[in-house]
Amino acid sequence: MEFKYQPEKTVEAAGLFLKLHGKPMEYMKLIKLLYMADRRALDFMYETITGDKYYSMDHGPILSRVYDLIVHGPEIAPDDLWFKYISSPSDYQISLLSDPGTDELCEEEEDIIKQIYAILGTINVWKISKLTHFFPEWTYPNGSSVRIRIEDILRAMNKSEEDICYIRNNIFKEGTIDILLEEEENA
């Protein structure tokens, strides 16, 4: 079960966290805050904000595509929307280049981001990292990475098998609609 990656929403969510912070932020902290926002959205809205894939790494869960964009920079995806709004890291920190706005985020998603930031935004990055080690879906990968599946997160949040099936069906429906729309555009 995978959600479709949402580049616009991902940039807007990251931009909102950075705007709330008001100064450069450790990129690891941003990744943890985005993970927690996706996790909270999954709990309350039955979908994530970013649609990214998740992995356990030594310092906690990460969003795979966001991590790659930050760590590997524009050399892996020079035309990615991310680099129009968010800087490459300097001294392990990133900053907002320009405000991407929040047009793609719904009110609930903005509220989740603001709540996560209000609770954790001023906490030291290493404390946030340790906090994520208490998420049941995270496993210590011993220098490697281990995939965190959506089902793992849902079960860690005590979602029922019916809820998990409902989410899986919605993902399938959205994917089918996307395929049909693409075929229509290409026709």
Please give a structural write-up.
The protein has helices at residues 7-21, 27-45, 64-72, 82-85, 107-120, 125-132, 150-156, 161-186, and strands spanning 25-26, 54-57, 60-63, 93-94, 146-148. By secondary structure, it is mainly alpha-helical. It has one domain. The strands form 2 sheets. It has a 3-stranded antiparallel β-sheet with strand order 3-2-5. It has a two-stranded antiparallel ribbon with strand order 1-4. The radius of gyration is 16 Å and the shape is globular. It starts with 6 loop residues before the first helix and ends with a helix.
Short description:
By secondary structure, this protein is mainly alpha-helical.
Tell me the number of structural domains.
Answer: 1
Let me know the largest β-sheet: 3 strands, antiparallel
* Strand order of the biggest β-sheet: 3-2-5
One letter per element, helices H and strands E, the order comes to: HEHEEHHEHHEHH
Q: Strand percentage, roughly?
A: 5-15%
Number of helices: 8
Counting helices, strands and paired strands, the structural category is mainly alpha
**How many β strands by DSSP?**
5
Taken from the alpha-carbon principal axes, the silhouette is globular
Evaluate the radius of gyration.
16 Å
Mean pLDDT: 92
Helix content: 40-55%
Cα distance spanning the termini: 29 Å
Low-confidence stretches: none
